[in-house]
Design brief:
This protein is an alpha+beta fold. The chain contains 24 helices and 28 strands. Strands 11-9-10-7-6-14 form a six-stranded mixed sheet. Helix 21 links the parallel strand 25 and strand 26.
């Protein structure tokens, strides 16, 4: 007997009944089990972070990620859909810091690493139930009873295996480089993380007057970062461009700068040209420093400073054609510094604060800009401070302005596999194609080495042990660690109560537990200690194709059956996030693309095409929307409103109209058809 079909249009109530029926009868599990003999169609689900709430954009990603697997299941395919949780990284640490009333790394270490890590574990499950209810309400089918969890030992061990494979290929290295650095979080970021945090800002730049040594003249040099001027050690010109020495008609002041920019900077008809040079002629010309804060450091290093150097990176599109050089704060500066063996002066500390050598000790460097400009103005060494509008990188997690900062970090040499990345990307069916060939393809053409280490706490520990003799060793498994460690069992006993039960009597692969494990140096026999860094959490999510199965330690056939994925989908912001980390790691380990088809989704906007945010008051609560309109109405709206890769404007009137015109018509048709019988 079939239940009587109601004539009312209460779609939300009927959806709840269907949801309960699916759950009670285990319909999703049956849909998998009944197709086990059919061909496999693999879907990878990008893992959400369970300590953040779902938003209306997640409805779009959920419904697209549900539609394709459902269609394939209807065609007879067995479609495994394993849910996962992204559990490591700064988002979790920042949430815990806020909860505990802590501010920064120093206070975390005073509080204690072990209890802090325990709070991180608890925090990652804060909204787990909410995510599960959300997914069920939307009608998103996935195996949430057996998810992969990126903080489990089994997942981390697979990552360690991958990192050792990369190490063995000579592609994991430690280098002293200029890195994008978040002073609030105290850690460098990778280039694909930086790409997610740019903001357009207006700031004061500086055209400073550097006194020429032995002349009554100045060199005009431009910078967009006045806070770096106290660390200046050189000025740079383009060796092939034309430069002039000019005298101002009004006051007789003499300046050196690029000829092509004189009218823009000085004003047309305001000066007379005294001499003309090519940039190379000015090389090694000396000047007096703007400040004396760096002088002592230069003298201690016994290196010459405060003279003109040459490099072709200097352009004449902005400024004066003369660039100030501070090798501690820029990749180009650092390169020029190595070329000329310039002193290394870093008058900003790891907190992003000016050091005691300056009058602004303890002040955040970006906030020191006005003070530096004021000091230059008072000393008569500021020509002008024009407002400069540009796109500046901010930390994608805490919103702090980043600084480019010289640090020793660990890198994966992605530049060595650039051609493989491009070739593998060309095998992927990108929808739309313009993302794969354009935005993503351009990213790969300019790929940089992956700054993979993080100077933080809650993350997958970097699996490198170092000895005082200089030996370094990468550990690739728990078994290898146990075989090389003389104190492994002691650490297990020491932290037996504190370590996660999932570790099953082994050392939990997290700080501080793993930090206590030493191994015997294979070269000198002394004890080796693990480096303190953890790794970029994007390496976690990019490792999920094999780490979710604890490959290669088990499930070898299952992994091979489900790799690569037939289909993945996320929003466009994952172009340089999950899409890239998946391809990067798969190329490094397997040299093949990890997915065959990808639908790149546009962002969900408000009805006026504006980005949704709580601060603007235009954010839509997804639970309210689902309760008001029902999942089917919202799903249908997202399917037909626009191509999924375009921005989607979400507003209630349009959803209701779609519900009335399609679902109402469909329901009435069903009722009329049944009435005939």
């Amino acid at each position: 007997m079939y239940n009587k079909v109601p004539a009312n249009m209460n779609f939300v109530e009927r959806e709840k009944n269907i949801e309960k029926f699916w759950e009670d009868e285990q319909i999703f599990k049956k849909s998998i089990d009944s197709r086990k003999q059919g061909p496999t169609y693999t879907f990878y689900d990008g893992p959400p972070t369970a300590n953040g709430k779902p938003h209306i954009g997640h409805v779009l990603t959920r419904v697209i990620k549900d539609m394709i697997p459902r269609y394939r299941a209807m065609k007879g395919y067995m479609v495994p859909r394993k849910a996962g949780w992204d559990t490591h990284g700064l988002p979790v640490e920042l949430e815990v810091e806020k909860m505990l009333g802590l501010d920064g790394k120093e206070q975390i270490e005073q509080y204690g690493l072990e209890p802090f890590i325990e709070h991180c574990k608890e925090s990652v499950w804060k909204y787990k139930g909410m995510w599960e209810r959300f997914s069920n309400t939307v009608g998103f089918w996935a195996d949430m009873e057996h998810p992969y969890v990126t903080y489990h030992n089994s997942f981390i061990e697979s990552e360690w295996w991958a990192l050792k494979e990369i190490w063995n290929k000579g592609l994991l290295y430690k280098g002293f480089k200029i890195v994008p650095y978040c002073p609030r979080c105290g850690t460098p970021l990778s280039s694909h993380e930086v790409a997610q945090g740019y903001k357009d800002v207006k700031e004061r730049s500086a055209i400073a007057k550097f006194p020429v040594k032995g002349e009554d003249a100045y060199i005009l040099a431009w910078t967009t970062t006045p806070w770096t001027l106290p660390s200046n050690v050189a000025l740079c010109v383009n060796p092939d461009e034309t430069y002039v020495k000019v005298k101002m008609k009004e006051d007789g002041t003499v300046y050196y700068m690029a000829q092509a920019l004189c009218d823009t900077v000085l004003g047309e008809g305001t000066y007379d040209v005294l001499e003309t040079f090519v940039g190379k002629d000015l090389e090694y010309k000396e000047y007096e420093p703007l400040f004396d804060y760096a002088v002592a450091t230069c003298e201690k290093q016994h290196k010459k400073a405060f003279y003109i150097v040459c490099d072709n990176y200097v352009t004449l599109t902005d400024g004066t054609g003369v660039v100030h050089i501070a090798p501690a704060f820029g990749e180009d500066d650092s390169k020029v510094g190595r070329k000329y063996d310039l002193p290394f002066v870093q008058l900003v500390d790891g907190k992003g604060e000016m050091t005691k050598e300056t009058p602004w000790a303890g002040m955040f460097c970006k906030k020191a800009d006005p003070e530096v400009l004021k000091a230059l103005r008072e000393s008569g060494l500021l020509f002008s401070a024009p407002v400069f509008e540009h796109s500046y990188p901010h930390c994608w997690r805490c919103d702090t302005p980043l600084i480019y900062y010289a640090r020793e970090s660990w890198f994966i040499k992605m530049t060595a596999v650039k051609d493989d990345l491009i070739r593998n990307n060309n095998t992927i069916n990108w929808i739309p194609e313009s993302i794969g060939k354009g935005r993503f393809g351009d990213w790969l053409e300019n790929v940089q080495d992956w700054g993979v280490s993080r100077n933080r706490y809650w993350g997958t520990p970097l699996n490198i042990w170092e000895c005082e003799c200089g030996c370094q060793h990468a550990i690739g498994s728990q078994a290898e660690l146990k075989s090389m460690s003389p104190n492994y069992t002691d650490v297990v006993k020491k932290y037996a109560k504190e370590m996660d039960q999932e570790a099953n009597g082994e050392v939990e692969l997290h700080r501080p537990f793993i930090d206590d494990v030493t191994i015997t140096c294979p070269k000198c026999g002394k004890q080796m200690h693990r480096v303190p860094e953890v790794i970029d959490c994007w390496f976690d999510s990019g490792s999920m194709p094999f780490a979710q199965h604890h490959y290669p330690f088990e499930n070898k056939e299952l992994f091979e059956q489900q790799f690569p994925a037939d289909f993945i989908s996320e929003a466009v912001d994952q172009t340089r996030g999950w899409f890239y980390s998946l391809l990067a790691i798969s190329t490094l380990i397997f040299n093949k693309a990890p997915y065959k088809n990808v639908i790149v989704l546009g962002h969900v906007q408000d009805e006026n095409g504006q980005k949704m945010s709580k601060s603007k008051g235009n954010a839509v609560d997804p639970f309210d929307a689902l309760q008001t309109y029902g999942a089917d109405a919202i799903r249908w709206y997202f399917y037909i409103n626009s191509a999924p890769w375009l921005p989607n404007r979400f507003h209630g009137k349009a959803v209701i109209e779609g519900q009335r015109r399609f679902m109402g018509t469909l329901w009435n048709t069903i009722l009329c058809t049944l009435c005939e019988y």
